[in-house]
Amino acid sequence: MEKSALQIARAAYQPKLPKALRGALKVIEGAPTTSVADQEEVKKLFPNTYGMPSLKFEPTEGQNDTAIMNIGVILSGGQAPGGHNVISGLFDGIKKLNPENKLYGFILGPGGLVDHNYKELTADIIDEYRNTGGFDIIGSGRTKLEKKEQFDKGLEIIKKLGIKALVIIGGDDSNTNACVLAEYYKSIGAGVQVIGCPKTIDGDLKNSEIETSFGFDTATKTYSEVIGNIMRDCNSARKYWHFIKLMGRSASHVTLECALQTHPNITLIGEEVEDKNLSLDDVVTQIANVVKERSEAGNNFGVALIPEGIIEFIPAIKKLIAELNDVLALPDAQNLGRSEQIDFVKSHLCADNLEVFNSLPTSVARQLALDRDPHGNVQVSLIETEKLLSTMVSAKLDQWKKEGKFNGKFSAQHHFFGYEGRCAAPSNFDADYCYSLGFNASMLIAAGKTGYMSSIKNTNLPVDQWIAGGIPITMMMNMEKRNGEMKPVIRKALVELDGKPFQYFASQRDKWAKETSYVFPGPIQYFGPSEVCDQPTKTLTLEKA
Question: Which of 258, 260, 510, 540 lies at a C-alpha separation of 20 to 30 Å from 34?
């Protein structure tokens, strides 16, 4: 593979490690843990991995050598910057424990484990991918590991390759599967450990012990650079409103962070829309009012940031989707044609939800009623919310014009930033954080742990002061309805409306709406002074202030 000058320079970057991971370490156990909710139900489902203590690693004298062991690794779900560094950290960690240790990568996600599709990851392969974006070292996939037959089929290849532990790098759904797998292997005495690593650019896999999921830092900086470019263009041409949809199906962390970095005129935060019980018309009116106010000041241009999952946060639509999920899970709903499925759905909705369904634009209604992803979720990224909102804003402004309430101009441009940020070369923060997560996972394996997630804390401070350890995945669990059934899943972390990042944003947004106070962050910096290159996200800085 031919390399660019940047790749060659980045390959030489040596990620930094927390102090505890640089030499011999000891394990400090905390108090027993409980799940975030539904404690009795979760405990019943995970009798072998529930209630384990949180762990912290501390430096000690001597050496942490181990007997020879082989490790398997899986990249699961959507790509996020830094995945290759998790794998290189894991590789370096197990080789430090014993140079004879081997690392096997399962190809194209969890499906590779079930289908026995794998390759050994040697130093030559690993060195090609250090500090690079993407998941192409072994590929990723969205196969769900949830059935006994899959676990048993995976166990066949695990035994054949002499694998002692499996590391699953993924988001909340993937780590839920990791937790289920750890429980099953422990319950049958398979002697196979399972460790998770927290990945998702959406930023919704976090808690007191997991301060940020990897890829969030890089993706938001990548999006913010392009948003800044659009703002500069917007302020130059002064004739368009740019509606920019951003990744974030279940939470608005990406949108909030990009707003904090760039100061747009309008930012929708899904969690606030839900909290205030806003209707779709309320949201449209809110945007139209800002357009009107700016127009009266002679500014017929602006920038609006919209999280891709905004539609699911509107309470009336959220209730509709919940019933749609139940209806689509019914046996009679299976194997119907698309038009038959729409008719079936309409005939099974309650009156209120049917009214909401019929009020939506046809394209949106069809999307809500049809395809689901493998986890049973509405594929909201396929709904062109940015166009839906700008069209509805335009219609409202036309109505106001007829009523003599609006005399300005409104012309919209549309953008969706999703894939552009998922495989960017990791920022210095993500390069260090991911490498530490992978190296840390090797130490959790050496300590004999299973059902744990690799945890690195104090990440708003220099790497020297980061704290390494692990938390039981069951600690993050609650029960939720999926495909018509109650299932244990990792609870998604939503934007906290009383949290410092949102509170700061809320204190500034009226000013940003009226004034053109755009910030142009520029590209991610890999080289240069620390105050430019090594800054964590605004979210992390404000949360830890």
Answer: 540
Q: What's the rounded Cα separation, in Å, for the pair 239 and 308?
A: 25
- Strands (E) located in 116-229: 118-120, 163-170, 193-198
Distance CA 175, CA 206 (A): 12
pLDDT at 265: 98
The type of residue at 186 is K
DSSP 326-356: HHHTSGGGTT--HHHHHHHHHHHS-HHHHHH
Q: What integer pLDDT is reported at residue 49 of this predicted model?
A: 98
Provide the pLDDT for residue 373. Answer: 67
Q: What is the structure's pLDDT at 81?
A: 98
pLDDT, position 64: 77
Helix (H) or strand (E) holding 522: none
Q: Which residue has the tokens 């005495």?
A: 189
Identify the active-site residue in 92, 172, 173, 202. Answer: 202
Question: What global pTM score does this model have?
Answer: 0.93
Supply the pLDDT for residue 379. Answer: 73
Residue at token pair 């927290």: 198
**pLDDT at site 164:** 98
State both tokens at 385: 């919310």
Residue 366 exposed, middle or buried by CB count within 10 Å (0-12, 13-18, 19+): middle
| Sites in the chain below the pLDDT cut of 50 | none
Does residue 202 carry a catalytic annotation?
yes
Q: Are 520 and 232 in contact (CB under 8 A)?
A: yes
Using only C-alpha atoms, the chain has a radius of gyration, in whole angstroms, of 24
